[in-house]
């Protein structure tokens, strides 16, 4: 899964989009976690059917028809959640989302093709009860003998015949079943307890703030990062992350004229005054001077067309004579001498609150023609605000103006992304409802899933604020769990984590509810179906969660702060999903609702025949399937048959 994902993303990064340096680490973590999870789901059901006495091919067909449904629905949900992030206009987020979506889809394909093929090639390797499966049993190198029917037998049992297990030992109920039953008995009290647990995290979340600095994207121990920070401290942000004003003159002749140079200089001098006024109006004690502009037309606040004076001496003729002006012009202008850039100096940190207010003030004070000064609706996006199609000053056409720089891109990206996150959240909620509602055919299961995911997100992001903003774990001395620069979360971290957390929450939710629906359709009541499902699937969900925790925990070992923050959020979310949501929250919420309402509009009477003596058949000729194996909806029936045919083909 990891290899094929990297092979796909390489040409994507080369021809389609820029891929952020953090994307490969995120891609590998998602591919590793999902591949192991999906294979674990399939292998668990395969082993259960083998223990029930079915042959290897029968067990694999049943596993594909049941857990294959879970894998496809989970993978589709995850991929759609990641794809919804592609609408955000930030290459860091879109590249991570594209890589993660590709990793999920490849994990689904590998789990439904390579995993069954390996099970059929080496069945005893995955099911042997001796030497932890590290034997040659059932492989081409193992011991074979010819069975009487002509099929290959391994250690006395043919691969296509059921294995008869005599006197099976009764299974002791697991701790997860006990926990689920306790959550059902005290459902109102447990619901109140979960609500109270959420309160401190919700209060911490109200103090959420974010930073837009570049250092969270850099490796803290790398020499280049240290050099970048040192240069910024010594020479200021004008050298490392400058803000510049690009002026595109009407023509080369106009740009070379004294009138254009004077008019442009006067425009910049007036711009400094307007920025100061705007900053004072917003309550910021900041004064911008004309000396904050440096370019071909202005230096140290004076217009170069009027000369460059040091005291009473004009040194401008000497500057022209020795070619110094032409040298600077080559650096600041394009080859055709039709555009030049002006460095705009900020007296405070550009990524601070005052720095952002300054950038907004400079943008708003750019001279705009009256006809385009106020767009329809009174709102300008970042591109239209930074760009002025044409400017005119002192009756001289200056040309187009464009304000740009990395700090502006970070500010605009953060504001645009966070402003649209509610819409992304609504889109993800709609995806959850559509996929779960269509998958299970019920109305309340999607609503319950949204409530569980919302609780998990509040606790997870609240814990992240406590750790990376309030510094609750700073005393441990672990850099990965300490606040970074600015004592706040990097704005990209929650934007990336939210889709992953929703997808992972649904992954385990779907796995559990598939089992619940199967037992409910076999005739059990809702509460018993949940307890039985936890008894069967609780351990495997916990094991899958631990594997996922270890996979994402590797991000905490990174020296990149943004990966540390994302890794912490994913680890907390996975633990909550595996050990709280599936074991406590779901049984509690389902116990608070009448049994029939949990599965409405499905009717159990339509499927109760499976539990009262009829032998169901699901396309496996002559093979009796476990009660409730058949789906009640026709499209799900066909879907299961398709996956079963995939098992036959493999």
Brief summary:
The chain has helices at 2-16, 23-51, 56-83, 91-121, 123-127, 175-185, 187-205, 223-235, 237-240, 252-256, 258-281, 316-321, 324-332, 353-365, 382-386, 406-440, 444-468, 492-521, 526-553, 561-591, 595-598, 634-649; strands at 144-146, 152-154, 157-158, 210-211, 243-248, 293-294, 298-299, 302-303, 309-310, 313-314, 339-344, 387-393, 396-404, 489-490. The protein contains 22 helices and 14 strands.
CA radius of gyration: 32 Å
Helix content: 55-70%
Structural class: alpha+beta
* Largest beta-sheet details: 5 strands, antiparallel
Instruction: Give me the side-by-side strand order of the main sheet.
Output: 6-11-5-13-12
Distance from first to last alpha carbon = 18 Å
**Which residues sit in consecutive blocks of at least 5 with pLDDT less than 50?**
140-165, 371-383, 606-639
Form type = elongated
**Mean pLDDT metric:** 78
* Count of discrete alpha- or pi-helical segments spanning 4 or more residues: 22
* Percent range for β-strand residues: 5-15%
Number of E-type strands = 14
Account of the 3D structure:
This protein is an alpha+beta fold and 650 residues long. Helices cover 59% and strands 8% of the residues. The strands form five sheets. A five-stranded antiparallel beta sheet has the order 6-11-5-13-12. A hairpin with a 2-residue loop joins strand 9 and strand 10. It is elongated and about 100 Å long. The two termini are 18 Å apart.
């Amino acid at each position: 899964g990891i290899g094929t994902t990297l092979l796909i993303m390489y040409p994507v990064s080369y021809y389609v989009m820029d891929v952020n340096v953090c994307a490969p680490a995120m891609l590998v973590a998602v591919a590793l976690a999902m591949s192991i999870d999906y294979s674990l789901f399939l292998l668990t059901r395969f082993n259960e059917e083998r223990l029930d006495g079915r042959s290897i091919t029968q067990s694999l067909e049943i596993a594909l028809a049941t857990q294959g449904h879970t894998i496809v629905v989970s993978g589709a949900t995850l991929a759609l959640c990641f794809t919804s992030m592609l609408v955000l206009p930030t290459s860091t987020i879109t590249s991570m989302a594209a890589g993660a979506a590709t990793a999920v889809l490849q994990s689904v394909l590998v789990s439904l093709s390579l995993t069954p093929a390996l099970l059929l090639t080496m069945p005893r390797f995955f099911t042997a009860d001796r030497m932890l499966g590290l034997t040659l049993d059932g492989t081409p190198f193992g011991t074979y003998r010819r069975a009487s029917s002509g099929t290959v037998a391994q250690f006395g049992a043919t691969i296509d015949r059921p294995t008869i297990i005599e006197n099976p030992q009764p299974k002791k109920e697991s701790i997860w079943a006990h926990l689920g039953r306790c959550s059902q008995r005290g459902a109102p009290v447990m619901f109140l307890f979960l609500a109270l647990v959420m309160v401190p995290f919700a209060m911490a979340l109200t103090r959420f703030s974010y930073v837009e600095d570049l250092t969270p994207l850099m490796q803290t121990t790398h020499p280049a990062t240290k050099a970048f920070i040192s240069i910024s401290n010594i020479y200021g942000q004008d050298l490392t992350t400058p803000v510049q004003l690009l002026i595109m003159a009407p023509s080369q002749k106009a740009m070379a004229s004294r009138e254009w140079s004077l008019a442009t200089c006067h425009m910049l001098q007036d711009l400094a005054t307007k920025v100061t006024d705007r900053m004072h109006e917003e309550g910021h004690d900041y004064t911008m001077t004309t000396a904050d502009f440096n370019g071909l037309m202005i230096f140290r606040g004076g217009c170069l067309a009027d000369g460059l004076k040091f005291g009473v001496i004009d040194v401008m003729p000497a500057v022209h004579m020795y070619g110094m002006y032409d040298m600077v012009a080559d650096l600041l202008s394009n080859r055709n001498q039709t555009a030049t850039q002006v460095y705009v100096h900020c007296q405070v940190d550009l990524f601070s609150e005052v720095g952002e207010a300054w950038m907004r003030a400079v943008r708003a004070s750019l001279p705009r023609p009256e006809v385009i000064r106020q767009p329809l609706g009174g709102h300008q996006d970042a591109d239209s605000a930074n760009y002025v199609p044409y400017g005119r000053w002192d009756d001289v056409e200056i040309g187009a103006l464009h304000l740009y720089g990395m700090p502006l891109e970070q500010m605009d990206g953060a504001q645009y992304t966070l402003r649209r996150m509610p819409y992304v959240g609504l889109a993800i909620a709609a995806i959850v409802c559509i996929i779960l509602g269509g998958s299970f055919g019920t109305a309340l299961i999607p609503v319950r899933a949204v409530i569980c995911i919302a609780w998990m997100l509040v606790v997870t992001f609240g814990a992240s604020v406590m750790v990376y903003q309030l510094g609750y774990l700073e005393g441990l001395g672990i850099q990965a769990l300490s606040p970074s620069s600015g004592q706040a979360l990097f704005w990209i971290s929650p934007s990336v984590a939210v889709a992953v957390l929703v997808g992972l929450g649904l992954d385990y939710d779907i796995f559990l509810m598939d089992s619940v629906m199967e037992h409910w359709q076999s005739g059990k009541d809702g509460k018993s179906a949940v307890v039985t499902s936890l008894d069967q699937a609780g351990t495997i969900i916990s094991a899958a969660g631990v594997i996922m925790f270890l996979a994402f925990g590797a991000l905490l070992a990174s020296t990149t702060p943004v990966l540390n923050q994302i890794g912490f959020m994913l680890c907390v979310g996975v633990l909550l999903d595996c050990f709280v949501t599936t074991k406590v929250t779901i049984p509690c919420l389902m116990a608070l609702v009448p049994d029939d309402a949990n599965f409405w509009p499905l009717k159990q009477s339509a499927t109760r025949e499976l539990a009262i003596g009829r032998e169901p058949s699901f396309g496996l000729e002559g093979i009796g399937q476990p009660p409730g194996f058949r789906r009640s909806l026709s499209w799900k029936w066909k879907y299961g048959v398709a996956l079963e045919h995939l098992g036959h083909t493999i």
